[in-house]
Design brief:
Signal peptide: 1-15
Bound molecules: 2-acetamido-2-deoxy-beta-D-glucopyranose
Keywords: Signal
Number of strands: 43
Radius of gyration: 24 Å
Helix content: under 10%
């Protein structure tokens, strides 16, 4: 049984609020062989959606149906293909049968239980979708294609079996959904190239496979009230200059980082990550927020990052199609340092900032925020700016070297040194107000000009 332990009341006995997901009904152990299939991505990439998409039932008209059961066990075949408009409610869709090409299956929605194709529309309400052997539960493709999914139970085993997947500029509005996937590369809510737009609310997601995130952002992700765990993936994967907004979400991530955000080709700039009234917990030693080969603006508002010690990593690195390690230059000749601009408001954060090989982290604390931690290099040069407003505080846990250090409290009285020093670059553009002086900090340390 998998439960999310949300709230622990420590009044004598330990109690917790638990949330169930579809794996409590269909045990992943029954589908272990399916979940062990490793997708082979070493096949030629197909650049346009192959046609036709084979499906057991094709709706090219306008249809409204309820209380139906649709299924197929044929290989490389969807259960339902929508090329018109379909309203489907109180219905069950069961898909089994293998993909003959997992790249086509993942990227082009072949073998998906429900495939909403070019400029089509589907409204799915009170549906129960089960998929085995590798394909998405619900796939939507193309500009002007839209799927609405409300009150849905989505279960999948096998690889590339995403919950809801929007690609080719398609849009998905998802609410009151429970999703479980047991296979590899089977994220709960995914966008894909050139973009997918996903609006997710009031939902529960649980993935267990490597490369299976809660949100795979290629395009935009807007998530509100989502509770999720990705046992062997981050909460957010993001490739390139995409946007992910998490509001009132509570998630747990087990591999790479609470988020793992990178550019898989040349370094992109313009990515956005926003956490509002949200909490990300990471398992093991992975960082809260991991960035490689990208330039990104991050905002953390009234949110928590619960980690074993590292809040943010900015690395000269990226994530490969294996989705289970941080890759170096030998895998990707286009790598550049990460540049990460973080605004923290109304939050109390504990942990360190670590930058590698000329990467940069700008860390701004405002609106009654506090930070307990330090910044240091993981490898070679590392650059950090710290900005504090007068309502925010920094408690050092290690001596830290900075470029810009701005503080609305020019006497630096909101910094608790605990005996550690800050070494600041006296020539940095914004440090003129410090006058190149050494300044005593509360707790016995100093801000020392270098
Ligand atoms: C989608 O549109 C493209 C281009 O018009 C076409 O080749 C393809 O067959 C269409 N796919 C479906 C499933 O209708
Ligand atoms: C729409 O298409 C479906 C599937 O081919 C068919 O069963 C149904 O009768 C059609 N409905 C209309 C109104 O034509
Ligand atoms: C599907 O439902 C929507 C919203 O209720 C409605 O506007 C639309 O006409 C319905 N389409 C069909 C084919 O019944
Ligand atoms: C379906 O795919 C499986 C796994 O690749 C294969 O063993 C089986 O022969 C296929 N069935 C058909 C009818 O092609
Ligand atoms: C969905 O269907 C599966 C069987 O395919 C069943 O075990 C499960 O309980 C159903 N879920 C809901 C919410 O009815
Ligand atoms: C997606 O949108 C872009 C930009 O508008 C357009 O060039 C491209 O053809 C669209 N792709 C699809 C599959 O609709
Ligand atoms: C961070 O704060 C600065 C100063 O208030 C602002 O200019 C910038 O747009 C903010 N960035 C984000 C990502 O919120
Ligand atoms: C940083 O990137 C290097 C490759 O450039 C990699 O070996 C190392 O594991 C990464 N570490 C972290 C914490 O990202
Ligand atoms: C560090 O960056 C340089 C380029 O400036 C690159 O050649 C080297 O491979 C990188 N080393 C690591 C460990 O990332
Ligand atoms: C300090 O800042 C100046 C001006 O931007 C820069 O040229 C220099 O490299 C910085 N020093 C260090 C040690 O980073
Ligand atoms: C300091 O901040 C300013 C303004 O953002 C920037 O131009 C400069 O590169 C930063 N670093 C140094 C070392 O001056
Ligand atoms: C600041 O402190 C450092 C280290 O103790 C010392 O080398 C340096 O001369 C001092 N600078 C000033 C301006 O007092």
């Amino acid at each position: 049984m998998h439960f999310f332990h949300l709230i622990h009341f420590c009044a004598g006995a330990l109690a917790s609020v638990s949330i169930v997901d579809p794996s409590d009904v269909i045990s992943p152990s029954l589908w272990a062989a399916d979940n062990a299939i490793v997708p082979d991505y070493n096949v030629p990439f197909i650049s346009v959606q192959p046609s036709p998409i084979i499906a057991a039932y094709t709706f090219d008209n306008s249809t409204s149906l309820s209380h139906q059961v649709f299924s197929t066990a044929l290989n490389q075949t969807s259960v339902i293909l929508v090329t018109g408009e379909l309203n489907l409610s109180y219905s069950t869709i069961v898909k089994s049968g293998y993909a003959s090409n997992l790249l086509e299956s993942s990227f082009w929605g072949f073998n998906a239980a429900i495939n909403v194709a070019n400029a089509s529309k589907a409204q799915l309400d009170n549906i129960n979708v089960t998929v085995h052997n590798g394909a998405a539960n619900i796939y939507v493709y193309g500009t002007d294609s839209v799927v609405y999914v409300n009150n849905a139970w989505l279960y999948s085993s096998g690889p590339v079996s995403h919950g809801v997947y929007a690609s080719g500029n398609g849009t998905a509005y998802v609410s009151n959904v429970q999703h479980f996937s047991g296979g590899m590369r089977s994220s709960s809510f995914s966008g894909d190239s050139p973009a997918g737009y996903l609006y997710i609310s009031d939902s529960v997601a649980h993935t267990t496979g490597i490369g299976s995130a809660t949100f795979y952002a290629l395009g935009d992700i807007y998530a509100t009230n989502v509770v999720a765990i990705s046992e062997q993936g981050p909460t957010v994967f993001m490739d390139g200059a995409q946007k992910a907004y998490l509001t009132n979400c509570e998630t747990t991530a087990g591999l790479l980082g609470g988020v793992a955000i990178f550019s898989s080709q040349t370094r992109q700039s313009g990515a956005i990550l926003s956490l509002k009234n949200s909490k990300i917990t990471t398992l093991g030693s992975i960082p809260g927020l991991w960035f490689g080969n990208t330039i990104i603006d991050v905002s953390i508002d009234a949110s928590e990052l619960v980690t074993s010690g590292v809040l943010v990593v900015a690395n000269y690195s990226q994530i490969t199609q294996d989705f289970d390690y941080y890759a170096d230059y030998s895998q990707q000749p286009n790598l550049q340092p990460a540049e990460v601009y973080v605004n923290v408001t109304e939050s109390s954060l504990v942990g360190d900032l670590v930058a590698y090989n000329s990467s940069f982290i700008s860390w701004s604390l405002a609106s009654y925020s506090s930070w307990t931690g330090a910044a240091y290099s993981g490898f070679d040069e590392a650059y950090f700016d710290v900005h504090l407003d007068s309502s925010s505080t920094w408690t050092l846990t290690k001596s830290t070297t900075l470029q810009n250090l701005t503080d609305a409290d020019e006497t630096l009285s909101n910094i608790q040194s605990q005996g550690f020093n800050i070494y600041y670059n006296a020539s940095a553009l914004l440090n003129g107000y410090l006058g190149g002086k050494n300044i005593s900090l509360a707790g016995g340390g100093k801000a020392i000009a270098i």
